[in-house]
Amino acid sequence: MKQHRTDLRKHLPTPTLSGLRVAVTGGTSGLGLALVRQLREGGAQVALVARTEEAVERVALETGALGLVGDVGRKEDIYPLALQLTGQLGGLDVLINNASSLGPTPLLPLADTDCEDLELALAVNLVGPFRLTKALFGALTASAREGRCAVVVNVSSDAAVNAYPHWGAYGASKAGLLHLTSVWNEEAKSLGVQFLSIDPGDMDTPLHAAAIPDADTSQLKRPEDAASEVLQAVLQALSPQEPEERFQSSLLGEPS
Amino acid sequence: MRPASGPSRDHGKLMTLDSSGNMDVRSRKDVGLLFEPGDVVVANTAATLPASLQGLHVQSGQDIEIRLAGWVEAYDVTRFKAVAFGAGDYRVPTEHRLSPPTMRPGDRLRLGPLRATVQAVLDHSRLLELRFQGDRKEILAGLARHGRPIQYAYVPKPLELWDVWTHLAAEPIAFESPSAGFALSWDTLSRWQKRGIAFATLSHAAGISSTGDPDLDQRLPLDEPYEIPPRTAAAINKARLQGNRVIAIGTTVVRALEAATCSGCVVRSGLGVARNLIGASTNLCTVDAIVTGVHEHGESHYELLRAFADTSVLESMNQRAAAEDFQAHEFGDSMLIERQARAKRSQAV
Ligand SMILES: NC(=O)c1ccc[n+]([C@@H]2O[C@H](COP(=O)([O-])OP(=O)(O)OC[C@H]3O[C@@H](n4cnc5c(N)ncnc54)[C@H](OP(=O)(O)O)[C@@H]3O)[C@@H](O)[C@H]2O)c1
């Protein structure tokens, strides 16, 4: 993850997580779970979304976050989620599109990948975040108009920019998401909504274990460390500074 | 006029009436070219609840439909004002729907996963106050799962939530769409921004707009909670001081702004409840122009338009609209009506 410049902020009030209204998709495992925990510790109001009811309830109970069961890859789930999110949090300041589908494992070369599996990767990793952002865009822009800032984080991957064999479906979906993020950011910055694409780096999570079962986990990043970097980037986006500066620091991170 | 039969991707038409009474028809995509720098456009960010609930009246064993219609206490989801319908759904026009069984206080309703009790029968046998079991999370989850947006007989394809949320929809507090907002796109807003036209929002919990029962419809609109953010009040008060216009997107915005205007014609920010009825005799204090749908004589929205222009002017607009094949109702074409100079109006009653 790119080192963020902090010199600009030296004399400005530091924003905090306290009171922020945040939605995290995929908040029951890995990076998403670490985000939910740290956001709650920081005093944010948090809603998390994932498909498995028990896990959602367990994390909601542990952290005091609002737990919502839903599949971001399903069109029918998006508006009911948006209704409950905004109805419960009373609006929204930050949306973190973190849930992701790897598709069937072991990962396969494209020529062996079923078209349906490419479609699924696109549905969950690209179209899902797009739909959810659109459904919540009214709430995000309302927050920005009221002088609270609004930020959307789309969790990316180095597979969005590098041609890794066997990572074609997932990589294409993440590449699409990266591009959507930059265009969203161009279009929405005049409305006060910033879009960040963040590659968390290789983390020791169930997703990584499914993709590369024989990885040396001691070499992998802890999801907690990646989560605190993501939240730092969110706080930096929320702090007053030049829009150009924000845009660069958020999108030009080196793939890790 | 024929009703629009559903949400459409087309731009639709826009009829304009300026303050001197000149009428014009153009494409609604031109709405971004209207207004002058310094004017402020105000829209409603209310998102629409899935307020139609099919279920059972336990005491009689009869199927019913409940339409949530208004708040008892602002945004307390355990209590709603509601209208009861007999068995059946929107495919039967509301005026031909079966009556619901007689409801009494204490009666229990099973509405999918939701459980409610009739708390009171209000001043009409079909207008109820309901209390729902459970906490906010459970009730919102039940509505999200079981509720459907209120449907219209003239829209054949069932409406989904994404059809009834405007682009601005933020907080789910309205019972029917603040449908004038369908005329706005983000592209229009960015054109206004480039042209120096201010844009501000408020939230107003639009209640049910009609029930098919003339007696009941007479009681509409119900009281509607609203909230005006401080920045919105400031933008409006500044525009007025500088002699610029305030343009309301929809009747709900007019109702909220006029309710929040206190002596000296200053708009106050904060939460309030709109109990005011706006009609021919209303002296509009804050709003100079309204963007709205096509409304016909007899609708409560039409009454509100009489605060902007005389019946004779509204009727000639409607005649022109009919001649130009305008579509009415939620998903139809739009009208921009500027308040007519008072002197020119045959005096309001
Ligand atoms: N781990 C890495 O090394 C790595 C590297 C680069 C980028 N990333 C990115 O980081 C993000 C988090 O990955 P992770 O490793 O933390 O994953 P993870 O541990 O596998 O967790 C994924 C989370 O997403 C939820 N989820 C999956 N599909 C969903 C769907 N369709 N709808 C709603 N929720 C869904 C899962 O719960 P349910 O299964 O119950 O729904 C779970 O909560 C992903 O965007 C991933 O692409 C990870």
TrEMBL record, chain A:
Taxonomic lineage: Bacteria, Candidatus Eiseniibacteriota
Species in which this protein is naturally found: Eiseniibacteriota bacterium
SUPFAM superfamilies, sorted: NAD(P)-binding Rossmann-fold domains
Family: Belongs to the short-chain dehydrogenases/reductases (SDR) family.
Protein name per its UniProtKB record: SDR family oxidoreductase
TM helices/strands, residue ranges: none
A Pfam family per the record: adh_short
Molecular function, one GO term: oxidoreductase activity
Record keywords, A-Z: Oxidoreductase
Automatic annotation (TrEMBL), chain B:
GO biological process, one term: tRNA queuosine(34) biosynthetic process
Region of interest (Disordered), ranges: 1-21
Keyword annotations: Cytoplasm, Isomerase, Queuosine biosynthesis, S-adenosyl-L-methionine, Transferase
Highest taxon above the source species: Bacteria
Residues making up the signal peptide according to the UniProt record: none
Gene Ontology terms for molecular function: S-adenosylmethionine:tRNA ribosyltransferase-isomerase activity
Protein name: S-adenosylmethionine:tRNA ribosyltransferase-isomerase
